[in-house]
Amino acid sequence: HIIGVMQNFDFVLRQARGEFFMWLSDDDFLAPGILQKYADFLASNRDYSLVSGKIKYWIGDRPIFCEEDFNLEQRAGIARVVKFYFKVVYGSIFYGLMRKETAKAIPIKTRIGDDWHFVASLAYLGKIKNLDCVAYNKKCGGLSKDFQQYAKTMGAAPFSARYPHVQIAMD
Question: Is 170 helix (H, G, I), strand (E, B) or coil?
Answer without folding.
Answer: helix
